[in-house]
Write a structure and sequence with these properties.
Helix content: 10-25%
Structural class: little secondary structure
Number of helices: 7
Strand content: 5-15%
Oligomer: single chain
Shape: globular
Distance between the termini: 74 Å
Strand order of the largest sheet: 6-5-7
Order of helices and strands: HEEHEEEEEEEHHHHH
Number of strands: 9
């Protein structure tokens, strides 16, 4: 018979172990940790029986008693599903067997489908030119998930602009699997303190109050975070960004854009692994600034809002948002960010909201994309569309579609019809710049 003290301890522990629904189905991650047995087995057993896993015989378990052979494989046990007919909520990867030649990945979450890492392309750009190529490893973050065929990046040994080892890149390199980071009512982020009442990632979810906190955006790790398998030498120094997403974030944008309201701190968070990738005085890096060093000045704000497509500057702020070129509002006012997602999702940058900024995700997707460098559009050519098409599928020379089928290129642009652009649409740098820099 349990003592009163033991019963009390059990009652305190149960809410932390059970998944909070928050009014949404399948809410395994609602800010804090999900059920332990969702990711781990007890003594390398499942349902009371010893199991073999990832080539190991029964009784010789995976590290940390994970259900997958590694951390990313454990994540993909839920986040990849065979047989999806289209984008499906929390799925972030398409099985390779479902992407034969010319067929694109299926998932359309803002971060992108890791399936693009499985797609490589070759093409001839012009008469007399040598064969060009775009390896799958160039299309995004090469998470190591052995059970699902995702391998270490063969092109980069460490993170560009940093020293994070490619061999250790996994889902938990960015996301805290136990969801310890929480946002309090005053906007501060901590790993302990008030209980977590909900995800904190969604515009229609619960918000923190005097008694309860919510989870950090997308379970992203904050200051001091590092995967247990890697060690504290790679601890994060910057906290998670302020952002909120719609509940239906994984969907086609064939008719309407999917608006994530990015507030501030995204580029600074990316610098946890890519500290020297920007022109910020820390040495090396790329040319384009981002984050606090890259405010969208008055001229750029005006141009972003007026730009619709090549040759068309008739736009207005209320309808100028383009998901292929998002920006930070420059604020951590969550009431404002939630309103942007739910009430004014097509609104462009405004200095009335804060200090709009270019960020890493203005040009890149967090997981992967159909283009080199995980970019949102093809930055390796001067045109997004040519003769009204994304691709030159079937033609001998393919300088713009670069080996992608029209179906693949369309999916890489999240099903946005090519007809919404000009027939000869310039690179989307021109959404902010009057000419391509």
């Amino acid at each position: 018979m349990k003592t009163p003290k033991a019963i009390l301890a059990l009652l305190v522990l149960l809410p932390a172990l059970l998944p909070a629904t928050g009014g949404r189905s399948l809410a395994f991650h609602e800010g804090g940790a999900g059920e332990c047995e969702g990711c781990h087995t007890m003594h390398n057993s499942e349902g009371g029986f010893a199991v073999a896993s990832n080539g190991r015989p029964a009784g010789m378990g995976n590290r940390y008693l994970l259900k997958g052979g590694d951390s990313s494989s454990t994540c993909l046990n839920c986040h990849e599903k065979a047989g999806d007919v289209g984008p499906t909520s929390y799925h972030v990867s398409t099985p390779g067997s479902e992407m034969p030649f010319g067929v694109p990945p299926k998932q359309l979450g803002p971060g992108g489908d890791f399936g693009w890492l499985r797609k490589s392309y070759t093409w001839i750009p012009a008469f007399g030119s040598t064969l060009s190529n775009s390896e799958g490893d160039r299309h995004g973050h090469n998470v190591v998930a052995g059970d699902y065929g995702y391998l270490q990046d063969a092109l980069k040994m460490t993170a560009p602009g940093g020293s994070y080892p490619a061999a250790s890149l996994s889902c938990v390199a960015c996301h805290d699997p136990h969801g310890r980071y929480r946002r309090d009512q005053d906007g501060s982020i901590a790993v302990t303190g008030k209980p977590i009442r909900g995800s904190g990632s969604y515009a229609t979810g619960a918000e923190p109050d005097a008694a309860m906190a919510v989870g950090a955006y997308r379970l992203l790790g904050g200051n001091g975070y590092y995967p247990k398998s890697l060690g504290p030498a790679f601890s994060f120094i910057n906290g998670p960004p302020a952002a909120v997403a719609p509940a239906d974030y994984n969907r086609s944008e064939s008719t309407t854009a999917t608006r994530v309201a990015y507030g501030q701190g995204m580029s600074e968070w990316c610098r946890n692994c890519h500290p020297n990738i920007h022109r910020d005085g820390s040495g090396g890096g790329l040319v384009h600034p981002a984050g606090t060093e890259a405010p969208l000045g008055g001229v750029m704000v005006d141009y972003y809002n007026r730009y619709i497509k090549t040759g068309d500057l008739s736009g207005v702020e209320a309808t100028s948002w383009l998901s292929l070129v998002p920006f930070e509002a420059g604020t951590n006012n969550y009431a404002l960010l939630r309103n942007i997602v739910t009430a004014t999702p097509t609104k462009g940058p405004s200095t009335a909201d804060g200090t709009p900024r270019v960020m890493c995700l203005t040009c890149h997707r967090a997981h992967a994309s159909g283009w080199d460098g995980a970019t949102r559009w093809n930055t390796k050519t001067p045109y997004v569309t040519y003769s009204g098409k994304y691709s030159q599928e079937g033609e001998a020379y393919q300088p713009y579609g670069q080996g992608r089928s029209e179906m693949e290129a369309l999916r890489a642009y999240y099903d946005r019809p090519a007809s919404l652009f000009s027939p000869e649409q310039a690179a989307l740098c021109t959404k902010c710049h009057t000419s391509v820099p």
